[in-house]
Fold this sequence. Notes:
Layout: H1 2-5, H2 11-25, H3 37-47, H4 52-65, H5 69-74, H6 77-84, H7 91-106, H8 115-119, H9 126-137, H10 146-155, H11 167-178, H12 184-197, H13 216-219, E1 236-246, E2 251-256, E3 267-268, E4 271-273, H14 280-288, E5 299-304, E6 308-318, E7 330-334, H15 345-354
Parallel strand pairs: 1-6
Antiparallel strand pairs: 1-4, 2-3, 2-7, 5-6
Helix pairs in contact: 2-12, 3-4, 3-9, 9-12, 10-12
The chain binds a DNA duplex (11 and 11 nucleotides) through helix 3, helix 4, helix 7, helix 9 and helix 10.
Amino acid sequence: MEQMHLQDFYITEFQDDLVNWFLENQRELPWRMSKDPYRVWVSEIMLQQTRVDTVIPYYNAFMREFPTLEALAEAEEDRILKAWEGLGYYSRVRNLQTAVREVVEQYEGRVPDTREEISSLKGVGPYTAGAVLSIAYGKPEPAVDGNVMRVLSRVLLVEEDIAKASTRKIFENILYDLVSKDDPSSFNQGLMELGALICTPTSPGCLLCPVREHCRAYDHGKQNDLPIKSKKKKQTAKQMAAVVLRNERGEVLIEKRPETGLLARLWQFPNVEVTDGRSVEEHFQASYDIEVVLDEPIQKVEHVFSHLIWNITVYEAQVSGQPDGGQATRKWIPVKDIEKYAFPVSHQKIIQKSLL
DNA sequence: CATTCGTGGGT
DNA sequence: TACCCAAGAAT
């Protein structure tokens, strides 16, 4: 299979051109200051489906607060979620802490250096395993992300649908032969850096490309037609109503989201999905067993997820007496304490408009 | 294999 | 505006 893709391909020349380009042209990024496996690991988790420019400030703050594997292992979950607030895909940081604790307890605090062992850690999939092994330990392992599939689909004229899960293995098999055995770290990072800077999704900069002479897509004028990627269906919308509820002491009511699922364990303002013709008050009565008299809506917030859209209408209301449902996940907090809790971006917008 | 899981930026 | 997408993993 992979022999077919690498037939008549000048592997050594390609490796050298790519690695030399990377060594000369790589960006200075905070996680490239050290090969500490923990630091590399944290950066790779943050970079999953997330842009470099977005990650940089989060990475710097995270390493300041959790400089070592042990520091992260001992941290409170609310602290790590707060450090991740706004970054998205929050299971990443909970899985990271679970994995770090596993390393402390089962590997004497040393990140494992075999694919078998590192892949057993929570949140470490095929890409992250290869990235840490090659970057931190210099092992010739494939690290196939979206950049790598795009670059190699062009260079080797691979016309498989990269949206299919099975396609990743095609590139992994190719890379076991193709990855540089001299400098696997620079080779793997070079493929990704090339994808980020030159071999971009639209209008690739072929005239600046260090491996243009190796590129089969460029030879055939197909660089704009690759990779092949099927579309995914668009999101469905949900109508939501949220309320900033204040009591006589000037406190606001917040609640912790469920242990699993969307935005798991983040905090939010009480909210309901408005389904049929029932009023918003009736929905709150049914879900929270509290009687609220709502004023006119304060704002509307749209929260777009990968697979879902919330259209949130935000209300404010005063309550008297003891309207708390009594659940452990709900609590009244002084407004000044709001910054201690991690909220989804939509609820951060509510905070900015209603409480600050 | 397809879906779930965030967010912000680019075209 | 409406997509697409970015150093993916878990289910």
